[in-house]
Amino acid sequence: MSTAPEVRAVERQGIDVIAESDRKGRPRGLFWPWFAANVSVLGLSYGSFVLGFGISLAQATVVSVVGVAFSFLLCGIVAIAGKRGSAPTMVLSRAAFGVRGNRLPSFLSWVLTVGWETALASLAVLATSTVFRELGWDDGVVTKLVALVVVAALVVGAGIAGFDVIMRLQTVITVVTAVLTVVYVVLAVPSIDLGTLGALPAGSAQNVIGALVLVMTGFGLGWVNAAADYSRYLPRSSSTGGVVWWTTFGGALAPAVLVVVGVLLAGSSKDLNGAIGADPIGALTTILPVWFLVPFALVAILGLVGGAVLDIYSSGLALLSAGVRIPRPVAAGVDGVFMVAGAVYVVFFAKDFISPFQAFLVTLGVPIAAWAGVFVADVVLRRRAYADAELDDVHGRYGDVRWAAIGLVVLGTVLGWGLVTNTYGVPAWLNWQGYLLGPFGLGGREGAWAYANLGVLVALVVGFAGTLLTARGTVRRQEHDS
């Protein structure tokens, strides 16, 4: 009789703890889902976003590598909790926030992941339309609708199927997209103009910080709330260092390279740099030979689908963690409905992509950074496995509502939103942000610090430092009862 682990067509596991018999694999297996989710050519477009802060080639390169690596290191630390607790990220977060107190960060996590899957699905549709136009084919409404149906079917189908199907799909996506992305980079190299790049003026410290924050929120901080969802299937005897390394390395490798290449391309051409704002993926086709347009469409769509698949899986788990009582496959289907509705708006009604996208990143990046600070510090303080049964028990060691942790998220969010600005103009109702820039002597909403988006970093530090100072005794008491 074979002893190979069962591969299920549809994962039945919800947010409950993974049984010992179902734990499998090694930390190095984490490389595949994280690399596949982040090898998307969207990373190239971030080069344009970074240069939008008015910084030099050297500054942009440092910002890109440091921002990507540090933000995914946070994911690596959170992934430790998955190995220790064998439960989804937003269930393990109950140890820090309480069983019902954790519903607030779970809801925030759900909004963030649904927003990301919407953005990625929208980009896949826009990229398909642009490739069709470059080939001289119809790129109108029908093409976009068909592309949306195909993308939605792939993403929602994999999200409903669950862990085993996703892990196999991500392995295939990793190989195909990695090879085709390398080909794209080779073909794009002749478009790089070192003379133009060398003439880019250096930006201020505030501009460098703003670019760094954008990279952090666009990469690791966009995944940190899902970082334990894949390590939870590992045996608890797995190497902690291995979990951190393979999560960080798998997530950061492709984006660190792609963003730097994107800086080189966008910095060499004003036309390309401007076009990326409206269609971040499709604009990249303008420097390609016609024969590579179809392979490019394949690599672009597969890369975006790879990221959206992880998002819809984790958004379903976050919805369940927030207290919605439905089966996990149904939760993934519900999230798919929101994803399609959001993609319809972005593709058919929004004036451009970059404005609502960057406003989304900055606005949600603040409370998620505060939560990440709290949870990362909580993971660092712990030494033992979580008490499985008590993660659902409001009368257990983790409690019902832990007001100190919630207070840190609220404080970090209030301070953070006061130190960021919605400088992108969409949506206009976010223009109330930045209300502390004047009182704190930072020049107000029009001053030099308005573009630094310090609020994300402040929220992260408030959550992390506050938890280290206030929760050490609580964690020790929880672990003493084990």
TrEMBL record:
InterPro entries linked to this entry: Pur-cyt_permease, Pur-cyt_permease_Fcy2/21/22
Topology of this chain in the membrane: Multi-pass membrane protein
Species of the source: Curtobacterium oceanosedimentum
Localization terms from the record: Membrane
TM spans (from-to): 31-55, 61-82, 103-125, 145-165, 172-192, 204-224, 244-267, 287-310, 330-350, 356-381, 401-420, 448-469
Protein name (record): Allantoin permease
Family of this protein: Belongs to the purine-cytosine permease (2.A.39) family.
Keyword 4Fe-4S assigned: no
Keywords noted in UniProt: Membrane, Transmembrane, Transmembrane helix, Transport
